[in-house]
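Methods — Computational structure assignment.
A single polypeptide chain was analysed. Its primary sequence is given first, followed by the predicted tertiary structure written as structure tokens.
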Amino acid sequence: MQGELRLTVDGPRWSRLLNSEAPVEEHDTMHEDPWVKSPVTLGTESLDYEVVENSAYREDQAQRGRWHRIHYAAIKWLFALLIGIGTGLSAFVINVAVENFSGWKFIATFAIMRHSYFAGLVVYVLFNATLVFSSVFIVTNFAPAAAGSGIPELKGYLNGIDTPGILLFRTLIGKILGSIGSVGGGLALGKEGPLVHTGACIASLGGSTKYFINWQWLRVFKNDRDRRDLVTIGCAAGVAAAFRAPVGGVLFALEEVTSWWRSQLLWRVFFTSAVVAVVVRTAMSWCAHGNCGHFGSGGFIIWDISGGQDDYSFYELWPMAMLGIIGGLLGALFNQLTLYLSSYRRNVLHKKGDRVKIIEACLVSLITSVLSFGLPLLTTCTPCPDPVRYPDIVCPRPSKHYGNYVTFHCSSENQYNDLATIFFNTPDDAIRNLFSTKTVHEYSAQSLFIFMVMFYLLAVITYGIAVPSGQFVPGIMIGATYGRLVGMLVVSLYKKDDIDEGTYALLGAASFLGGSMRMTVSLCVIMVEITNNLNLLPLIMLVLLISKAVGDIFNMGFYEQQAHLRGIPLLESTPKRFMRKLSARDALRANKVVNFSRIAQVSHIVAVLCSNNHNGFPVIEELPNGQTLVIGLILRSYLLVLLQSKADFQDTPIAGDDRGRVTIRYSATDFVKPVSSKGLSINDIHLTPQELEMYLDLKPFVNPSPYMVPEDMSLTKVYNLFRQLGLRHVLVVPRPSRLTGLITRKDLLLPEVLEETSTELSSTRVRYKAYKMPLLEKNFFPHH
């Protein structure tokens, strides 16, 4: 079935298939999938990361010489460069657009507020509603897969599960335009998560078989394995562009989204992240000359707090540890609330159609705009800090500039509104204000508490509406708010001048992200990179470890919960404890295994494909002595290509010589499903009655060496094999009765051994012969 992690059963490769029979009826195969938790699962499909070593693949590999390998490596590095440039430019476009839309909105609102607060509110609401409407309209009518952050779907993709539509070109366009509207519209969300999805979409263009990127010299990337590498690079590039944290991007890809890693991929991911940093830096330097409108000091995240607190005392570790506990509790609660609300949306509300999605998004925008405009009006203005004591502070903030101390409705020139300082800024600039150092008593405890409660609730109800949305920035803002509250408490208790509220705001932000997303290493490095303060590294590590430990007591991480809600069957890093007591046989389903004979009639193949949704079929061949031989596994996609081509149909059920025949008509890339799409369907194939009576020799197209496990292998080992190798099928066989040999680590270096001497090869053969086990063959296993 599509999207399955299915174990098929067969005997040893020299024996008949166990638990198998002729094609089963439709009601036997169209069974309910226990992985299904939402309708989305019906569209997911497992990816084929395993190499299908059939005749076409072997001949293709035999034809590859030195220049082909050089070309292949060069194209990989070229794609790494292009992904970095494309992701960096996309992040630049999104940031410039958000900054300019926000700047125009604030200028218009402040100008009209001088005459009428109500008119200013109307303009503010309409401006935000227009941007949010444009975002939700694009998503619902053009790119439905662009909704949300996209990270749960990417985790699933790199875990081996493909959700149709998540990596299409239209999803890329919808993600960019939708992020501009949703973030510029003032919703309680961020653009960092969507930027990760944007980077992955850009990367997947290199492995696309659609649109205009289908040149012959790029066909080497038309397989799921290379696409997986490209998407991994794109995810790292997205984080590097979102936070200007290249090392954090590499670690994010390694810790959070990938299930499979190797050193060669690490080099390319690191290179791409460095390219992103250079592109972003170059673009910002170009904007420094006033070429980007309102884009100036704001925009790309760099919250430099290196001038703040550079040391800490032992007694401060207790309130910092308390921040970790608070972050774990609030993060776990946030995960649970968003899970309940998202579940209601997916199962009830959003099933009513796109019109309901648009109305919902506009309603959330209205609530957010009214609260963010009305609450600052209800707070009193605060006198500006003493310019003699704080000569570096500019208060109030000059018009048409970003920064602290927003005047808003204050009548006096020497006053500012602390709540408006947070609300009437882009999210990046608001966080910069909360992290700002040497700004003691800039915010009142009452304003911070009001903002934290309100923004927490807004973030909960906002996530899940049909717009691109990320949770990094809302998490940072919530954590920075209660972190600054704790910092104010510590300052008042200990009466120390060297304690900075901005430091506690940073630690609070780290604690909430750790409690919600459950990241540690990558998040720690990201926070250090974006704050430019290495002295705080031990404290960030402390609060992250505590918050993650507390959060794990209650539920899973945010992205893991959302992935399960979407019905994405993620294989976590460690198997469940109960699997240690089970074997591979215990995981087998009661359904009969559907298999094909080597020479199969076309009508029989069509009937089997129409009657079930399996994606892998064992192929057997009957020997002259009446026994059956399992010659391999053939994928559904291969059968569909063969049926559509019709080039290998034959009139008689006679096996032919498959050597040299396959590659004349097919290459290894002809059987690959297009990226992030459903690919070829049995309904797309049209056959005449005469063609249905013909035959197909399947042997040249099967995978002759699929992974097999003995039936008594522990389910924990099977689980680890599935996850670490990215498998789609595993054949479960009885324990073999004969032994061919024994491979050790030394035998895997046989090419080097052969180059040195032939003596080692002789000793290896002798050792294989010595490990024959006639006693076991005679006494414990029956002969076949």
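Note: The chain is about 55% helix and 5% strand.
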